[in-house]
Specification:
The radius of gyration is 15 Å and the shape is globular. Strands 1-2-4-3-5-6-7-8 form an eight-stranded mixed beta sheet, sandwiched between helices. It contains five helices and eight strands, in the order βββαβαβαββαβα. Helix 1 packs parallel to helix 5 and helix 2 crosses helix 3. It has one domain: Rossmann fold. It is an alpha/beta fold and 209 residues long.
Length: 209
């Protein structure tokens, strides 16, 4: 993302996990861990939406860590349909943020994995922010967010997303009474609208202090 980006090699259940870390100026508010799209469809930690999320967190004073799931890039192992990837996510959290404030974020398949991390960590950690973009609710059993997490959560979806239909995300969100921010005219990868996506995330983070 920039010349100061640190390359990390972390230990995971399937072997090495390749990661990148970007730090803000000054003392960080905490650590944001960001998950990428589906590994079998070209998803990596260098995905443009993932990079946009990292930039937004860094701008708002967070250390941003993104990583490659098992079997992607230099990360060892093979695709595990979300189970092993959820373990990878929690392993990264433990390695880069064993204590302190935490933010959990993901895009598409990564939002599914991040939601699993929220479910696992909400009562054990100081999770201050949740950002889910293009949540893959039509393709995976995304767990509901804890009710008391909703005021810290931002769920964003493109109106014209034909990879994950908006209706599927609304069906997931409706029983939770969980608000969804819909971006008109935008498809799954937010082509041409990444600055808008970044602005929405920055505004969300700034309202949290």
């Amino acid at each position: 993302m920039n010349a100061q980006t640190e390359r990390l090699e972390l230990a995971g259940a399937a072997g090495r996990i390749q990661a990148l870390r970007d730090r803000p100026d000054g003392t960080p508010r905490g650590v944001a861990v960001i998950a990428h799209p589906h590994p079998l469809f070209g998803g990596t930690m260098d995905n443009k939406v993932v990079q946009t999320l990292a930039r937004a967190f860094v701008q708002c004073g967070w250390t941003a860590v993104r990583f490659n799931f098992r079997g992607v890039g230099a990360s060892e192992g093979s695709f595990d349909e979300g189970r092993g990837e959820a373990a990878d996510f929690q392993q990264v959290v433990q390695a880069v943020a064993p204590e302190g404030a935490l933010a959990l974020a993901g895009f598409s398949f990564g939002a599914f994995v991040a939601a699993q991390a929220v479910e696992a960590l909400w009562n054990a950690r100081d999770v201050q922010s949740i950002v889910l973009v293009g949540t893959a609710a039509s393709r995976f059993g995304v767990p509901p967010l804890p009710p008391d997490s909703h005021d810290r959560a931002l769920v964003i979806h493109g109106e014209q997303d034909d990879t994950v239909l908006l209706s599927a995300v609304l069906d997931w969100a409706r029983p939770q009474s969980l608000p969804v921010t819909v971006v008109p005219g935008v498809e799954h990868f937010f082509h041409g609208q990444l600055p808008l996506l970044k602005g929405l995330v920055v505004r969300h983070l700034r309202t949290q202090g």
